[in-house]
Write a structure and sequence with these properties.
- The structure is a single chain.
- With 218 residues, the chain is an alpha/beta fold.
- It has two domains: 118 residues, Rossmann fold; 57 residues, Winged helix-like DNA-binding domain superfamily/Winged helix DNA-binding domain (Arc Repressor Mutant, subunit A, Orthogonal Bundle).
- The chain has a six-stranded parallel β-sheet.
- The longest helix is centred in the C-terminal third of the chain and has 15 residues.
- The chain is elongated, with a radius of gyration of 19 Å.
Length: 218
């Protein structure tokens, strides 16, 4: 199926579009359907990333969120359309990406439109109660409903773990105490749903596509 460049909305040629939305789904059929739906809401939509990444919203699923891009403009909002029944599959991407909302592929079009308008307006939206419950228990949602991820310090520690560094080596390189490193590690493991360092490195490297060294058990 050919990729869709930005198209106008169906309300008429004189209507100013509400925004530009890039739809990047693992399934081309689903992606084209979502792009057509958001276009009917009055947005411009495409399934081919525009030059320069000049978009207001990016809609992805768990198979494409790993491509979402540190070079996108800061104004771009990322929406994860949850198409996988395994809730933990969304956890690691959320830890690393700035996600502004999670919506279910099973929601009706009226609710999807409401969610899209809320997210583009600056609100956070989590559609699935079961996913929300999982994210709350994993510490990935704040008391205000804001989606969280690894802190900058936690990301640095994870990078060292994936390189095979011990707690002592990480502490020396980051100029922190071993006790502080262990405290961060407990938070990291809980958020990622990892059972040990090897499992954590495996989750992260699967997401990033990078090679890793063998790592010590926790």
């Amino acid at each position: 199926m050919p990729e869709r460049d930005f198209g106008g909305n169906s309300a008429g040629v004189n209507v100013i579009p509400k925004g530009r939305i890039f739809v990047d789904m693992g399934s081309a059929i689903i992606g084209d359907a979502v792009a057509g739906l958001v276009q009917s809401f009055g947005y411009q939509s495409c399934t081919r990333q525009p030059a320069g990444g000049d978009v207001d919203v990016i809609i992805v699923d768990s198979s494409t969120i790993d491509k979402k891009r540190l070079d996108l403009p800061s104004k771009s909002k990322v929406i994860l359309m949850e198409t996988d029944a395994h809730q933990k599959n969304v956890a690691v991407p959320i830890l690393y990406q700035k996600v502004h909302g999670i919506i279910s592929c099973t929601m009706d079009s009226a609710k999807f439109r409401k969610a899209l308008e809320a997210i583009t307006g600056g609100q956070f939206w989590i559609d699935s109660p079961s996913v929300k419950s999982f994210l709350l228990s994993a510490g990935l949602v704040s008391s205000k409903g804001e989606l969280l991820g690894f802190t900058p310090q936690e990301k640095r520690i994870v990078e060292h773990i994936c390189r095979g560094d011990t707690n002592r080596e990480i502490a020396e390189k980051l100029h922190l105490s071993i006790h502080t490193i262990k405290t961060h590690l407990r938070s990291i493991m809980r958020k990622a749903g990892a059972i040990n360092r090897s499992h954590l490195a495996s989750l992260v490297t699967q997401f990033s596509g990078e090679d890793k060294r063998d790592v010590e058990p926790l």
